[in-house]
């Protein structure tokens, strides 16, 4: 049983106005794709409505699909009207915004395309467009290298007048080797301070709030270490399945899609040391230190400390859905995982011995992304004769769907006897600030227009992430093939997850000293 203590609503604390971006032409590669329609254009539209778009901001969409600028406007307008990321869509608002959109047909694999692009941008500049160029590469990872190289060959990587920056969407490579190769191409063409590698989780308000919560309060930091923390769980459960992304997902899987970037970033922000300042290099330096301190996994460790799953048929919101292997475009014998769970150890003074349990999956029972920090149990002698159990404190940072922070602690149940009950202090963004903050892509697009790279990942950081993930992928390829499907769509995920929770890991006898105190997962 639990009671709720609600933090009082904060008055007049609605969102602060955002600082407008610089003037620029945003050149989107992959403009006919899903991300542009569902995320980028709705976020740009929101920014324009908030009044934080420079009057000299324009979009030049580039794609292979033949389309006129008019058709591009129509297509993106329809998508923006439907997107859950769009705030306050109106016909008049869209009419005002769509003037800024242009489209150019181009095959980025063709060397002759790049002089055409340069010519087009020169023409735009002559007719009054901004000389600043923000390239946005939202294409499959295999095309990113040729685009960067192509921009370099025609000199679009540097400007005499104005600035040039490049935003690179995830996935950044598919393993350590390909990420290193892509970084080498990037560094050969662009200076590192012009490169913005995107991980949209870093643009989420609650994710940024982790640092304020930890370092802006004297209450939490003293206990934020192995002396007080028993274990940490980071979970991202999704009800959606693979949707129409089979080609991408078959090559990617849950570990590469979610753990290699979004969830490792959440882990880094939860575990990092305080940065010297909230600037790009100080923050990124501390995150890289966390990645470098994660214990590398041998094949045996991978067998004990990881679990993978693939959904079979089931029901989501009462509707029957097919299993992954029956989704359009998926190999009927696919061994791609749609669920991944990993137990990480960070070997430094702050965290030695504290397990970090990371898990994510598609077509699970609920949509929920959260970090739960479980503190150690108290010595129980004082309450030994009581019938109720004293639960350890838990700090929950909810990232979605309800953004907020809650702290569970014990209180005395009213009455003559001393009996305890778990109560919660809750902070909810919605209740306290009245509105949701900007969506992640708004924050990140605006930062890239303003030249602030704090919320983007650095080249060595991406490589450090792959250094953790690649051995797991390699070990999975060597271990006996999993018996897929092993969880039903709409369920809590595969039972093998519980093996990862066992003291020594999956099938092992050895016990680990920490993190076994009073562990309880949300599902139990
Ligand atoms: C993307 C993944 O990066 O993040 C998707 O490719 C996933 O598979 C998505 O669904 C989750 O993002 P969000 O913001 O909805 O949690």
In short:
Strands 1-18-17-16-15-8-14-13-9 form a nine-stranded mixed sheet. A six-stranded parallel sheet has the order 4-3-2-5-6-7. Helix 8 crosses helix 9, helix 9 (280-293) packs parallel to helix 13 (459-478) and helix 10 (299-305) packs across helix 13.
Describe it for me?
- The structure is a single chain.
- The chain has helices at residues 34-49, 69-82, 91-98, 113-126, 141-153, 176-189, 205-215, 246-271, 280-293, 299-305, 429-433, 440-450, 459-478, 497-501; strands at residues 2-6, 24-29, 57-63, 101-105, 133-137, 164-168, 195-197, 229-237, 306-309, 311-312, 314-316, 319-321, 339-345, 355-361, 368-375, 394-400, 404-412, 420-428, 487-488.
- With 524 residues, it is α/β, with parallel strands linked by helices.
- The strands form four sheets. The protein has a nine-stranded mixed beta sheet. A six-stranded parallel beta sheet has the order 4-3-2-5-6-7. Strands 10-19 form a two-stranded parallel ribbon.
- Strand 2, helix 1 (34-49) and strand 3 form a beta-alpha-beta unit.
- Helix 1 crosses helix 12 and helix 6 (176-189) runs antiparallel to helix 13.
- The longest helix is centred in the middle third of the chain and has 26 residues, at 246-271.
- It is globular, with a radius of gyration of 24 Å.
- The two termini are 15 Å apart.
- Mean pLDDT is 90; it is low at 1-7 and 508-524.
- The chain binds 6-O-phosphono-beta-D-glucopyranose.
- The site of 6-O-phosphono-beta-D-glucopyranose has 3 residues, from loops.
């Amino acid at each position: 049983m639990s009671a709720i203590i609600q933090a009082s609503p904060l008055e007049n604390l609605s969102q602060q106005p955002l600082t407008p971006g610089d003037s620029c032409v945003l050149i989107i590669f992959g403009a006919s794709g899903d991300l542009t329609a569902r995320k980028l254009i709705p976020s740009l539209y929101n920014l324009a409505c908030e009044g934080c778009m420079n009057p000299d901001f324009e979009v030049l969409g580039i794609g292979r699909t033949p389309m006129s600028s008019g058709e591009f406007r129509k297509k993106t307008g329809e998508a923006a009207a439907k997107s859950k990321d769009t705030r306050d869509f109106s016909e008049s608002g869209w009419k005002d915004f769509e003037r800024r959109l242009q489209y150019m047909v181009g095959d980025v694999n063709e060397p002759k395309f790049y002089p055409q692009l340069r010519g087009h941008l020169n023409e735009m500049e002559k007719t009054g467009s901004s000389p600043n160029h923000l390239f946005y590469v939202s294409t499959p990872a295999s095309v990113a290298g040729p685009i960067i190289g192509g921009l370099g060959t025609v000199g679009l990587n540097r400007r005499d007048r104005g600035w040039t920056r490049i935003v690179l969407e995830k996935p950044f490579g598919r393993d350590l080797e390909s990420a290193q190769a892509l970084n080498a191409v990037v560094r050969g063409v662009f200076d590192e301070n012009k490169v913005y590698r995107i991980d949209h989780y870093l643009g989420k308000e609650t994710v940024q709030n982790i640092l304020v919560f930890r370092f802006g309060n004297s209450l939490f930091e003293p206990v934020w270490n192995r002396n007080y923390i028993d274990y940490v769980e980071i979970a991202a459960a999704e009800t959606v399945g693979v949707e129409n992304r089979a080609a991408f997902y078959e090559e990617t899987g849950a570990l590469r899609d979610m753990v290699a970037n979004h969830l490792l970033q959440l882990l880094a922000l939860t575990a990092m040391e305080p940065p010297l300042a909230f600037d790009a290099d100080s923050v990124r330096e501390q995150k890289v230190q966390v990645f470098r301190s994660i214990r590398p996994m041998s094949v045996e460790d991978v067998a004990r400390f990881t679990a993978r799953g693939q959904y079979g048929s089931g029901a989501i919101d009462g509707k029957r859905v097919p299993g992954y292997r029956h989704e359009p475009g998926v190999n009927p014998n696919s061994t791609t995982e749609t669920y991944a769970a990993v137990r990480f150890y960070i070997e430094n003074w702050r965290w030695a011995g504290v397990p970090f349990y990371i898990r994510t999956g598609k077509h699970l029972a609920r949509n929920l992304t959260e970090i739960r920090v479980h503190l150690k149990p108290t010595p129980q002698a004082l309450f030994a004769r009581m019938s109720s159990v004293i639960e350890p404190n838990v700090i929950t940072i909810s990232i979605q769907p309800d953004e907020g922070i809650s702290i569970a602690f014990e209180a005395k149940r009213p009455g003559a006897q001393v009996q305890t009950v778990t109560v919660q202090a809750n902070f909810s963004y919605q209740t306290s600030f009245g509105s949701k903050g900007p969506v992640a892509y708004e924050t990140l697009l605006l930062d890239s227009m303003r030249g602030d790279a704090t919320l983007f990942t650095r080249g060595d950081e991406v490589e450090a992430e792959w250094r953790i993930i690649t051995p797991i992928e390699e070990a999975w390829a060597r271990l006996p093939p999993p018996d897929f499907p092993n969880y039903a769509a709409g369920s809590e995920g595969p039972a093998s997850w519980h093996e990862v929770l066992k003291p020594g890991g999956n099938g092992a006898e050895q016990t680990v000293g920490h993190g076994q105190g009073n562990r309880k997962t949300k599902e139990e």
